[in-house]
Amino acid sequence: MLAPQLLAYIGDGVFESHVRILLLPVWPRIETLHRQTVSRVRAERQAELLTIIQPHLTDDEADIVRRGRNAKTSAKRKDLFDYRYATAFEALIGYLHLDGQLDRLAELWVILDPHLLAIEPHIRPTDMVKKP
């Protein structure tokens, strides 16, 4: 099995791609889509999302999460708790993706997507106005 840091690296890309695709119909302007995506893929948000899916994890998935949480990482400007849980979340996503468990990943997206859509960071009024 790959190191948790490598699983997290892959999971980061998979998760960000999923969020972009999820938000595209809601935020079709590239600048707004980017800001909204970034606000949802931050370590703090990923830590929150992990706590939402933890009750639904299998024993093997919980083990991946534990390994990801305990991986040696260097938290930059982030709360260490959030950073470790975000790494664990990303490791789980990376593991499921690389292991070909796309149906299982889809089950977790069903749980997470409403939370991803409900997160409403500060939106400036100019984001809502279409420019000619």
Can you characterise this structure?
With 132 residues, the protein is mainly α. The chain has one domain (4-119): Ribonuclease iii, N-terminal Endonuclease Domain, Chain A (Orthogonal Bundle). The protein contains seven helices and no strands. The longest helix is centred in the first third of the chain and has 20 residues, at 4-23.
Question: What is the compact description of this entry?
Answer:
The chain is mainly α and 132 residues long. The chain has helices at 4-23, 30-41, 43-53, 59-69, 80-98, 102-118, 125-128. The chain has seven helices and no strands.
Topology at a glance:
Layout: H1 4-23, H2 30-41, H3 43-53, H4 59-69, H5 80-98, H6 102-118, H7 125-128
Helix pairs in contact: 1-2, 1-4, 1-5, 3-5, 4-5
pLDDT < 50 stretches: 121-132
Shape: globular
Counting helices, strands and paired strands, the structural category is mainly alpha
CATH class wording = Mainly Alpha
Overall pLDDT: 87
User: What is the CA-CA span between the terminal residues?
Assistant: 51 Å
Rg on CA atoms, Å: 15 Å
**Which band does the percent of strand residues land in?**
under 5%
Number of domain modules:
1
**SS elements, strand count:** 0
Helix and strand sequence: HHHHHHH
CATH names the topology as Ribonuclease iii, N-terminal Endonuclease Domain, Chain A
How helix-rich are the residues, as a percent range? Answer: over 70%
The description of the largest β-sheet is: none
CATH architectural arrangement: Orthogonal Bundle
State the helix count. 7
What's the name of the CATH homologous superfamily? Ribonuclease III domain
